[in-house]
Structures are given as C-alpha cells and as structure tokens.
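Obj: model holo form, ligand = NAP.
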Amino acid sequence: MVTTADSTSVLNPGRPVKLLVLGGGYSGRRLASQAARLGIPGVLSHRQPATAPPPPPGWRRIGFDSACGLQPDPDALSGVTHLISTIAPDREGRDPVLHQLGDLLQALPLQWLGYLSTTGVYGDTGGAWVDEHSPCQARPGRSANRLACEQAWLATGLPVQVFRLPGIYGPGRTPFAALRSGSSRLLHRPSQVFCRIHVDDIGGALLHCLALPDQQRPALVNVSDDLPCPASEVLGYAAHLLNCKLPPLQRYDDASSELSPMARSFWSECRRVRNDRLTRQLGYRLRYPTYREGLRASLAEEDGTALPLEGQPAAEGSGSAT
Ligand SMILES: NC(=O)c1ccc[n+]([C@@H]2O[C@H](COP(=O)([O-])OP(=O)(O)OC[C@H]3O[C@@H](n4cnc5c(N)ncnc54)[C@H](OP(=O)(O)O)[C@@H]3O)[C@@H](O)[C@H]2O)c1
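Output (holo structure tokens):
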C-alpha cells in the first residue's frame, strides 16, 4: 500500500513520478497534500490560481479554466507521468478536461490517469447493492452526462481508471457547523440510506491504485465506505460527538418541498454501493470504514485537536454538511 511513509519503493523504482491534479478543490487539494507527504511532486490546477491557497510542499499551482479557455502552462506539465481529474462535467455535459486538453494529454508520457466520477451513474436501485458489474441506470441530466464522460475517458486509449464516489465528507464538510449554529435538519425517510466516503480515503485509494502494477488496475473502482446508512443516523452520531441536542425529527415527505432541487435529487435515489473490488481485490484498507471513525477524526481536525500530519495544516477545505 502507498499509505506508508516511504512510497518511493512501491512507485516503480527508478521511474520518476510527477502527478498532475486537475481541479484543486476539496478532494484535489487533500489528495495533493497526501501525495506531497509521500514525497510525490506535482502540479495542482485552479481556475484562479492567483487567489488559490499555496500548494503543498514540492507542488506548483497552475491555472486551468475550460470555461474561459485558460490553458495550463506547458512548462509546468513537462514530465507529468500521472494525472488525476476531479473536474465535473460542464453545463453542456462535456468533460472540461477532454474538451480542452485532449490533444495535450495524448502528448504526455502518462503511465496512469485517475478520473473522479460518481456512484450516481448506477441510478436508483431501491436500496439494492451495486458493484462495478451492475448495469448503469443513470437518470437523464447530470448522471447521464457523467456516464458519458466516463465513457469518453475510457475511450481515449489512455491508461484510465474511473473512480466512482458517493457523498464526500471530511474536515470542513461535516454536519458540525450546522449543528452548532442550529441550522441543521433531521430528515428521515423510511428505508432511505446514503453511501459516503471520507475525503482522505479518496486520496488513499487513488494513490494505492496509482502504485499498483498496470495489469492489476481495473477500469472501474467504487470508492465507498463499509456502511450505507440513513442521514439521520449520521446526524445523530455527530450530535452525540458534540454533546448537543438534535433538531426535531421531520418526515422527508413533509419537508421535501423546502429542499433545493439538488437535495431532492439526492433523496430521490437509494442504493448501497459495494467496495469489495477496492478493499478485497485491490487490497486497500479504508482509513475510515464508517462515518463514526471519519466524523471523530474530522471533528478533531476542525477543532484543531488532531495531530497535524507533516506538511499539512491542521484543517483544510471548506464546505457544507454531508
Ligand atoms: N461532493 C460530493 O459529495 C461528490 C460526490 C460524488 C462525486 N463527486 C465528484 O467528485 C469530484 C471532486 O469533488 P469535490 O467535491 O472535491 O469537487 P470541488 O471541491 O467542487 O472541486 C472541483 C474542482 O474542479 C475545478 N473546476 C470546476 N469547473 C472547472 C472548469 N470548467 N475548468 C477547470 N476547472 C474546473 C474547480 O476549480 P476551482 O478550484 O477554481 O474552484 C475545483 O478545483 C467532482 O467531479 C465531483 O462532481 C463529488
């Protein structure tokens, strides 16, 4: 596994590694920090690099914005061997990276390419389990666009692995701030569950796969934790950690008209995502197998009581509750 202090031995000894992460948002930035701690140098893109946070040690910040045609500096990309794209489809449903940088990618000496997708491509299964062999029943719109982008990546002929993610949480994306401010909602719908993944298990899983031999890298990998469960259960545990009261329980059907269209679309699908390929076949050990370990660690980091890892500030990222 690459989750050891010295990754150089597993990353193809003698072959230099330079990682390009397109999209230094929540997951991209955490991932770059994890790679930097393993001694992997790299380049991280932002739409507004001048105002983006400083890159991790050994990393460089570059500009890339498909919407206004801002192209990455070719010098910065020189020697890139591995690439991760965290960028979602654009408004037209196209993949911004393939649309703008497709030719450039073909010219790089890429040994591996990871694409962050979503488990939304499986669609609604009424709570049934899905794995990477399950048919995709992506709904028209965002999920269908995402599936089309996955297929476009896989059709490039590049050494692509697609990583399907459920709801991402971690420091800065937890229910704690909303619980503390009294703005959280305790919604419940019978039989509804959600899957989730801690942000550092995204980085951990990708860096694990990056270090695997080429022939052991399946094209599709679900990166989800071990415990699909109701949102109310997660909020209950978060309130327990804060030792604070929960808001009153609301039935989803009574509250749904007050939710955003995005929130309603999440609640309109229910599935359980298997991670056996990642954890059993590929041998990745989840750092946060359930929301319980993940929320405890996230709270410690948000409150500054976690031991900071070398090269990483005590708290990173921002965002809303999971
Ligand atoms: N959030 C979730 O719960 C969740 C669940 C499943 C899958 N996903 C997917 O997983 C991926 C990572 O999620 P995340 O929450 O870490 O995303 P995020 O924080 O929103 O970061 C997305 C990154 O993409 C960049 N970006 C967006 N549009 C761009 C464009 N047109 N040209 C160039 N760069 C562009 C952003 O640039 P700036 O840094 O300039 O903003 C940002 O760095 C995304 O594809 C997301 O859709 C997310």
